[in-house]
Amino acid sequence: MAQRIEKDPLGERMVPAEALYGIQTLRAVENFPISGLKPLPAFIDAVIWIKRSAALTHKQTGRLEAKLADAIVAAADEVLAGEHRDQFLVDVYQAGAGTSHNMNCNEVLANRANEMLGGTRGTYRPVHPNDDVNMAQSTNDVIPTAMRLATLATLPKLLDAMQGLAESFLAKGREFDHVMKSGRTHLQDATPIRLGQEFTAYGRTVARHRHKLADAAKWLRPMNIGGTAVGTGLNAEVEYPRLMVEFLRELTGLDLEEAPDRIQLMQSMGDIATLSGAVRAYVLDLNKIANDIRLLASGPRTGLAEILLPAVQPGSSIMPGKVNPSIAEMVNQVCYQVLGLDTTVALAAEAGQLELNVMMPVITHNIVFALIILANASRQFDVACVKGIEADEKQCAYWLERSPALVTALAPRIGYAESAKLAKEAIATGLTVKELVTRKGMLPGRELDETLDLRAMTELGIPGRKPLPGGG
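Above: the chain sequence. Below: its structure as tokens.
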């Protein structure tokens, strides 16, 4: 392989002649052979957005020669169109703050811009990675800004997936509203509930989390670009932060604003931690819902079997005919992964010292990766599972009829103690609560029917008792 010689403050190294990256990227690849994980596309895009916007800003202020700025912009546009992606090589686990990734982007854009201007890769003339591509920037303001951009750009897919999932659960709630079934608390029989009520609650839970997550994202809109090394803005023009936000807003379509305190946003990762915490809260409920779906579909003969899930694949390599709740199981696994990612974000967010948090590369990777896999899992849960769920009405009625918890509706009439005796007797004899009450003649037929009205038991009120005049 042909090589070229490049120099940096540490000396000379041989770099592949065809590489768009340079010596600092090469050193990073050698220093951090950790995971084999390359930067997520959203992270690459975010830094390139910043470099492109900076070139336009400096062109407008006159600080950077127009032809150099135009070449940087053209190189950035190629990357944003999907070209040269194999040139971004730095491992997720790298030097603190993200200097290696920042320089990888600087070198790629500089080399490509120089080619467009008739230059040669590795010479860094007339466009230099630090002096021109990184003009008025520091890793310390580029990476926090990129972190926010990457997160905001990735979030809409999750919000869309959550919207779809919520709507599907609510639609099932309407479809199943007539299906009476046994409620369960402590995994024991409880008073009746409608299957539609359960599914409506799932939908509203997802919708509430979507609202909270969208609200948490508002904290990421302020951009601290222009803070340079420690947030004070040394070597950045006065107009630079405002122009950067304008160009970034136009380029990304995101609702961005200039940070009122760039030092604060460099010191604190609290805004990202807030969003990650909102993701965590959603995951805790989503995981519970997936587990509920698995329980309700358990069987088909020795479980609850109150709902039927779409069969998406054979469930066993040894047991013919077995069908598993595969999609819900996938959701469980994604939820556990996201909880681990959130823990990493939380610990890394706490790990800043004084003017900088150097754990930004791992924070960025974890929050963006969490949003990606959670969006995919939520969407797949929706389209491959929830939309196709069917109710087994006969099975729901079977369990409900035999539930000893139906005595709860009798307690206002015969007292708690007598109701408890009936429940124990129903379990011991295998008779239903209604059969026992009828045999014992405890309530007249019509009064018994009104008291054990299953639909009435799923609504606010006391079954069998007429409302007081005037609604009192």
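Residues 141-229+261-394 form a domain with the Fumarase C; Chain A, domain 2 fold (CATH 1.20.200.10).
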